[in-house]
Amino acid sequence: MKKLFTLLLLVVAMNANSQTIFGKWNSTNDDTGKIDSVVEIYEKNGKAFAKIVEIKDENRQNAVCEECTGKNKNKPILGLEILSGLEKDDDEWSGGKILDPRNGKIYKCFIKLEEPNKLKLRGYIGFSLLGKTKYWTRAE
């Protein structure tokens, strides 16, 4: 009975995790279509943030954000906070910023859980019509 209860708790926890934006997500390279990093989205003071927790390319393990400005200039990409200050607004998180470490640019953004294991990210300048949409898949 104890094993059954433990198994049930595990299933409930896994299902709950798959219904939230929080957790680890695979980010793919636009040019190659391959997973290039794993990003962890976490909550801090009621807002969503994310940092790069794994870089798949062994040659980029020690890469720094050369194109970044300010406090992120030449910071290691591994561990870099790329998503900040998103607040929950109905079924999406918005009002924050996303940093693209490939070019150092910061965009306004919103994210939305499309499916339990598929996250939609929209980065834009000015209006959300002027931007780019990416999809991340939940990391195992």
Summarize the structure in words.
This protein has 140 residues and is mainly beta. 11% of the residues lie in helices and 49% in strands. It has one domain (21-138): Beta Barrel (Lipocalin), CATH 2.40.128.520. An 8-stranded antiparallel beta barrel has the order 1-2-3-4-5-6-7-8. A hairpin with a 4-residue loop joins strand 5 and strand 6 (105-115). The longest helix has 16 residues, at 2-17. It starts with a helix and ends with a strand.
Q: Overall mean pLDDT score?
A: 88
Percentage of residues in strands: over 45%
**Classification by helices and strands:** mainly beta
CATH architecture: Beta Barrel
The main sheet comes to:
8 strands, antiparallel, barrel
CATH fold descriptor: Lipocalin
Over all CA atoms, what is the radius of gyration? 16 Å
What string, H for helix and E for strand, traces the elements in order?
Answer: HEEEEEEEE
Would you report the number of β strands?
8
Shape: globular
Low-confidence stretches: 4-17
* Overall structural domain count: 1
Measured as a percent range, the helix fraction is 10-25%
Strand order in space, largest sheet: 1-2-3-4-5-6-7-8
How large is the count of helical segments? 1
Signal peptide: 1-18
Pfam families: DUF2147
InterPro entries: DUF2147 (IPR019223)
Protein name: DUF2147 domain-containing protein
